[in-house]
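Ticket #4471: structure export looks truncated?
Reporter: QA, pipeline team
Priority: medium

Steps to reproduce: submit the single chain below to the structure queue and open the exported record.
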Amino acid sequence: MITTKRFARYWHIFWQLFQADLLVFWPQLWDDILNIIVWISSLLILSAYIFPLLGIMKSFGVFTAFALIASESYWRMWPTTFEFISDLDGERAIDYHLTLPLPSSLVLVKSIALYAFKSITFSFITFPWVLFLIWNEVDWHLFSWPKFILMFLSICLFTGCFFILLSSIAKNRNNLRKIGLRIIFPLWFFGAGQFPWQVIYDKVSPKLAYILLANPWVYAMEGMHAATMGQQGFLPFWICCRGSAYGFFFIWISGNYTIDAAFRCDIKPLSKKPKFFERLTHLIERQANNSGV
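Actual output as written to the record:
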């Protein structure tokens, strides 16, 4: 049983590790935002203003816009997984995190929380730009802010857990390309981000549509579109929330178990602590002492 004193110590260590990661994140923020804006703008201009001239439905631009807002968090899994695996293959700074008086599962929770924080930060800044590009196309009578926020936060947590699972599957950088081609790309292309699930059911094959329901990204995309474009033509929103929750817990349990087992079997002792970690340890201990923990 975790006592209040132990919980407070865990929280101090957890927060200091989180802040240390933010020190690396902030200098890169505007560079990453510029990349995202260029990427989203290019796709949205084509989807909202060029493709309808070729006969595609007029609302395709709005459909694509909200899929892109969620997909930014999804596609961040690949570089994040690469960074995570690169550390495991290289300097293994995470080994030092695991020597701190903190459960290894909380080290993973910190990584997930940082991933979700980055996704929320990027979307908070890019969302107004997306609305600027498609403002006249959005039917605000159908848009639900509470549902949008709920689904977006669940997507951020889902993708944060998913990158942990992908890291445990890939194990090294050489396998990462296989992970992208065999898992990340197929899940996204058949994840209802470019077409409504109902279209597959009505126009292609009901059997295929039901098979696609095994893809957790379908629930994320259908839920996002139901929240922003109205319920008609999409899976029921609360079913999507339930499907996302089931996917979240399954991926969290699978990823946590596999990568935690890898940690226990493959932690390398540090012959010398980097100066950064020495300062971090000193800061953690000082704050803990000051708070009486």
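Status: closed, not a bug. The export was complete when the record was re-opened. Leaving a note from the reviewer for reference: Confidence is low (pLDDT under 50) at residues 265-281.
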